[in-house]
Write a structure and sequence with these properties.
The chain is an alpha+beta fold and 444 residues long. The chain contains 16 helices and eleven strands. It has two domains: 209 residues, Metalloenzyme, LuxS/M16 peptidase-like (Cytochrome Bc1 Complex, Chain A, domain 1), CATH 3.30.830.10; 183 residues, Cytochrome Bc1 Complex, Chain A, domain 1 (2-Layer Sandwich), CATH 3.30.830.
Length: 444
């Protein structure tokens, strides 16, 4: 009887997942702006996002920090208005808005808004103003780079455990754009010629390199009229080709040897260990296997590695993981704060032991089923929110060139087999494909 009930539950659960298919409408404006519309009138809430297909992969040694600079410029300056208007619009209308770069997708610049439905028109106007050709001059460069420098200074001098990410990327992706430090000293940016900034801006921050997504409660005909009114007149940029990262001659390729380093931070009191692996690009079929492995090993307090290292062995005070996705590579990072009296090397060995376990033998079927159910539940939960639906639709078009990819995501997780977990672990989670960073307090 118990087996029958479980089977019935599984069937009903599978049907509920299948029913979560996201419906949408999409079209292009004459200037190349791609528009995606998803209607859900169940609540008077709407999400609006604009994603520019530009990020770390578009930088090189002469353009370090450009995407961070323009993310700040566009966020703080809505063409003829400024950050005061954006802040007032948000505060007066209970609007959530934010911008993202390098988190967790390194090859996009993303602006997000969530608001009550009757503010959609004003929000579309605001985003169109942001997309309008911005004024870029030396005074603007100085102001925005100063904002960037001050923000970086605050993040790196007042907060603990903020230094490791840039250091890991620099070592993990040596001689690659992903390894460049995105926030650079103001002096370096200020010394660059204005035309380099203008060329970069005119290439990537244009309608034909962007996706406008609306998800939630709105009238389609009305929204299309507003989109045409505000966005149609924005001039398109030149036709773009897919970015290819050239291999640097005479440089060591990835995967030659394990890289270890030590950094010191005056703002921390507890030593930490960071273990980061290079992983496949986000469109690779193995990327879903890596995501499955992250969920299984270390995502939440009920995951295998957390239970073993934190709860049972009591080797760490805190243990977490971060998966970053890029169009060229990804990375999976494990971060652990050591417990009092524990040797840092013992903590590293415990992390290695848990990873080696899934490399040396297949995970049990009941563990696999449990993890897949967790992933399916997370999938359903995230697509109950309009802002995450808008982001998923935008990412599907931006990175896969196919918006309906959003409805294939759960199928790709279901396609992950027990044998794939072991195969992918053995392929990517090796010492010659990782960085180990020892993170210590500054001794006073």
């Amino acid at each position: 009887m118990k087996k029958i009930l479980l089977s019935v539950f599984f069937v009903l659960f599978t049907l509920s997942i299948s029913a979560q298919k996201i419906k949408f409408e999409e079209y292009n404006l004459d200037n190349g702006l791609h528009v995606i519309l998803h209607k859900d009138n169940s609540a008077p809430v709407v999400a609006v996002s604009v994603s520019y297909h530009v990020g770390a992969i578009n930088e090189d040694s002469t353009k370090i920090g450009f995407t961070s600079y323009f993310e700040r410029l566009l966020w703080n300056n809505v063409n003829n208005t400024d950050s005061i208007y954006v802040n007032n619009f948000s505060a007066n209308n209970n609007v959530y808005n934010d911008s993202f770069i390098n988190d967790p997708f390194v090859d996009r610049t993303y602006f997000a808004n969530v608001m009550v439905s009757n503010k959609l028109k004003e929000c579309l106007w605001m985003e169109s103003e942001r997309m309008m050709p911005a004024k870029i001059d030396t005074s603007g460069m100085e102001i925005k780079t100063k904002i960037g420098a001050d923000t970086t200074l605050i993040e790196t001098t007042n907060l603990g455990y903020t230094l490791f990410n840039a250091e890991v990327n620099k070592l993990l992706f040596k001689n690659h754009p992903y390894g460049f430090v995105s926030d650079v000293p103001i002096s370096k940016i200020s010394n660059l010629k204005l035309n380099k900034f203008v060329d970069f801006y005119n290439t990537y921050y244009v309608p034909n390199n962007a996706v406008l997504t609306i998800a939630g409660d709105f009238d389609s005909a009305e929204a299309k009229l507003w989109i045409a009114e505000y966005f149609d007149g924005i001039k398109s940029g030149k036709k773009l080709k897919k970015t290819k990262v050239s291999k640097t001659k005479g440089k060591k390729p990835f995967g030659v040897e394990e890289i270890t380093d030590t950094i010191y931070d005056a703002n921390i009191n507890i030593p930490a260990i960071v273990v980061a692996y290079r992983t496949p690009k986000l469109t690779d079929k193995d990327a879903y296997v890596v995501s499955f492995i992250q969920n299984f090993l270390l995502k939440g307090t009920d995951s295998k590695m957390y239970k073993n290292i934190v709860e049972e062995e009591k080797l760490a005070l805190q243990l977490s993981s971060f998966l970053v996705s890029g169009e060229d590579y990804g990375s999976l990072t494990f971060f652990a704060l050591k417990n009092n009296g524990v040797e840092i090397e013992k903590l590293l060995k415990a992390i290695d032991f848990n990873i080696d376990e899934i490399k040396n033998k297949n995970i049990e079927l009941k563990e696999y089923d449990k993890e897949l159910n967790k992933i399916e539940l997370m999938f359903v939960s995230k697509h109950r929110l309009m802002n995450t639906i808008a982001e998923s639709l935008s990412n599907s078009y931006l990175f896969y060139g196919n918006t309906d990819e959003v409805n294939s995501e759960i199928k790709k997780y279901r396609a992950v087999k027990v044998e794939d977990v072991r195969r992918v672990s053995r392929k990517y989670f090796n010492k010659n494909n990782r960085v180990v960073l020892y993170y210590f307090p500054v001794m006073h």
